[in-house]
Amino acid sequence: MQSENRMFDDFVKMVNGFAGTMAGMGREAEGSAREKFREWIGGQDFVGRDEFEAVKAMAAAARDENEALRARIAALEAKGVSAAAAPKKAAKPKPGPGA
């Protein structure tokens, strides 16, 4: 009985050692993966939330200004067309040599 019990104890110690080794390898792999991910994220050209919001506000302001300028151009073009058309209507053709 003594020999069977000792063999079982040795087997339990071996399994515990294997489990500890595997757990250590898992922690090491996880730490390595986290470090690689941090390096990858750090190398990317990501912007922070505050920078994103600032650029978003700038784009909205530019869009509003663009719409205002578009309306102003349309008004100026309408004035230009009516001003250009007015002299043509007022101008009478010169009588030709046979008139």
Automatic annotation (TrEMBL):
Start and end residues of each stretch annotated as Disordered: 80-99
Keywords for this protein: Coiled coil
Pfam family, one: BMFP
Superkingdom to which the source organism belongs: Bacteria
Coiled coil start-end: 52-79
InterPro entries xref list: UbiK
Coiled coil keyword on record: yes
Protein name from the UniProt record: Accessory factor UbiK family protein
Organism annotation: Sphingomonas lutea
